[in-house]
Amino acid sequence: MTHQEKIDLLKKFAQAFNNHDIDTLMDCMTDDCIYDASSGAFEFGTRFEGQQAVRESFLGIFKVFPDAQWNNDIHFVDGNRGASQWYFTGTLEDGKKVEVNGNDLFHFKDGKIYIKDSYRKNRV
C-alpha cells in the first residue's frame, strides 16, 4: 500500500463512521482486526477481536449515539502506522450532548486496518 492509499483508506473509514455504514467499516478492516475502545477496565480500554466482535461494538456506538459524528478529521500515516484526529459529537438517549476531541491510532496489514486504538477526552 502506498502512503496515499493508506490516507485514502483512513478517509473512507472516517466517512463510513459518519454514515454509520457498518459494511464499509468492516470492509476496511482485516478479518483478524482488533479494536481497543477508549474506555474499559484494562490499560488498553476494552478490546474487541475479530470481525464479529468489532462489528457489534461499532453498532453499539451507533445505538448509544444515533446521531454520532466524527468531524474535522485529519489523517497521518508513517509506514504501517496511521493516526486520525477528530471532534466527536453525539446525543445520548436522555438528550445529553457529548462533544469531545479524540484520536485513533492505526496499524495496517494486508492493505487494510488491522488495529484501531481509540482515545478521546472525558469531559467532567
TrEMBL record:
Entries under Gene3D superfamilies matching the protein: 3.10.450.50
Pfam families: SnoaL_2
Descriptive protein name: SnoaL-like domain-containing protein
Domain of life: Bacteria
Source organism of the structure: Tenacibaculum holothuriorum
Domain SnoaL-like: 11-113
